[in-house]
Amino acid sequence: EEAFARATFGAPLPFPEEVLEEPESRLLTLALPLIQEAERRLAAAASGMAAAGGSLPFDPGTIVPLLLAGLPNQLLWTVTRAAVLELNVARLEGRTAGETPEERFASFLEILRRPEGALSLLELYPVLARQLVLRVGNWADASIEMLRRLAADWEDVRAAFGPAEEPGRVTAVVFGAGDRHRGGRAVCLLTFASGWRLVYKPRPMGIAARFQDLLGWMNERGFVPAFRRLGVLDRETHGWMEFAAAGPSAGREEIRRFYQRMGGSLALLYGLDASDFHYENLIASGEHPLLIDLESVVQPRLSAPADSGADWIANQIMGESVLRIGLLPQRFWGGAGEGVDLSGLGSPEGQLSPDRFPYWEERGTDAMQLRRRQLAMRGAENRPSLGGEPVDVDDFKEDLIDGFTRAYRLLRTHREELLAEGGLLSRMAGEEIRVLLRPTRSYALLLQESFHPFLLRDALERDRHFDLLWQGVAESPAIEQVVAAERRELLAGDIPLFNSRLGSRDLLGEGGERWPDFFERSGLEL
């Protein structure tokens, strides 16, 4: 009500032209009053930081448009299915004007620009209204929090990462890399006027910093070729990380060293019981493999179900092997299809997605409709390249095995030192890690389908939709304890996130919950 009372109706959406060229983005006109309210909040916060004095790493006059450029991606799927359904209803009822489908689409946008038009649609979809308030508000809160942390930490960031030249002020913000947790918070990539880039992570970064210490420890004890360490600044509630830039290899010898280091990393991750190192969590930077998401480096173990059968035992055996880490090429989600290789050392490029993704036909017309199909997946920057072509790991498997073997022997030789009181591992004991109780893909699909128009009309129906979470309990009974927390986070538009501490068997939730002795053994014990 406050947003609609203060809105400037008829004003354009405050997004870059390239965003508004996409017809779906224009349907966000429905949320214009809320977007304007968030824009005012951001501008007031930036001005307040400037008035407080001190040198800011961003221009209060330009930072708001930079942040707003990322908002459409967070709102589009929330809005479009219901908006397109009502677009088709308006066509059938003759409420849009125009001779062509494009003209009638534009006429529908005019309806949404009027307060009575937007409010009448939101009255039909009260869950959509609530989700828009929640999502736009969370986005504004997370953006302001990031700016305040950047301003407060700036001198320490400069000291920790020491860019060679004056970085200048922020010129681009990519907000939303990865999943959103804890009230819409997500990883953010900042680009500065000099071209220097910095990664912001809205979570503790202690485990990432300790992993870089382990790489340095291995270098000091003679592992060659030496690992490159990434700069990390942990602030306990959040942190900053050096941007890992991808780059080609200069020749075959560099690629051999890449895979020797990769084998060494594989041995270290195997010793640390790591998981989730898929193709998006590895960057090939010349001859250096750089691991960029280290929140699941050490994983605790659940107790076996009382009636565990062959599947559970097989999964446990796989989980104690190097395959658990996710770096080695392997197929996931085979089922009736071919499956897909998402491993750190493989690439999904050209493979068909395991799911049928939604897309729009007849875009920008009043005949828009949703279709689904498998899509050819794109690769990332995880594979080294030579002469512009990605390299196949199979051609360098001997180097990979050599690096693994030498690193494994080094770890075994210095085992007592690693395990000693006051050693590197014991100093990691209190660090926070992420625990993956279900595949993130399952949460993402469940959340995506919760924006079906029928579920946005009736909150009870949407609640029932999230009861699908109970389907996994039979296979993993321990999950029963966390279903209520999973539901709460999904209803709030977040991917559920669970944590633990390296030396603890307790599970921690986003809302401050603690489930004591949830795990049979802690990650540090293992």
Question: How would you describe the overall organization of this protein?
Answer:
- With 526 residues, the protein is an alpha+beta fold.
- Helix content is 42%, strand content 13%.
- It has 19 helices and 17 strands.
- The protein has helices spanning 2-6, 17-20, 23-26, 32-51, 63-68, 71-92, 101-113, 115-124, 126-161, 206-220, 252-271, 310-319, 397-413, 415-419, 424-427, 440-449, 453-457, 459-465, 483-491, and strands at 170-181, 185-192, 197-201, 232-234, 239-242, 282-285, 288-291, 331-332, 340-341, 357-361, 369-373, 385-386, 389-390, 432-435, 498-501, 507-509, 514-515.
- The strands form six sheets. Strands 1-2-3-5-4 form a five-stranded antiparallel β-sheet. A four-stranded antiparallel β-sheet has the order 14-15-16-17, with no helix packed on it. A two-stranded antiparallel sheet has the order 6-7.
- A hairpin with a 5-residue loop joins strand 15 (498-501) and strand 16.
- Helix 4 runs parallel beside helix 9 and helix 6 runs antiparallel to helix 9.
- The longest helix has 36 residues, at 126-161.
- The N and C termini lie far apart (54 Å).
- The model has no long low-confidence stretch (mean pLDDT 92).
List the SSEs and their pairings.
Elements: H1 2-6, H2 17-20, H3 23-26, H4 32-51, H5 63-68, H6 71-92, H7 101-113, H8 115-124, H9 126-161, E1 170-181, E2 185-192, E3 197-201, H10 206-220, E4 232-234, E5 239-242, H11 252-271, E6 282-285, E7 288-291, H12 310-319, E8 331-332, E9 340-341, E10 357-361, E11 369-373, E12 385-386, E13 389-390, H13 397-413, H14 415-419, H15 424-427, E14 432-435, H16 440-449, H17 453-457, H18 459-465, H19 483-491, E15 498-501, E16 507-509, E17 514-515
Helix pairs in contact: 4-9, 6-9, 11-13
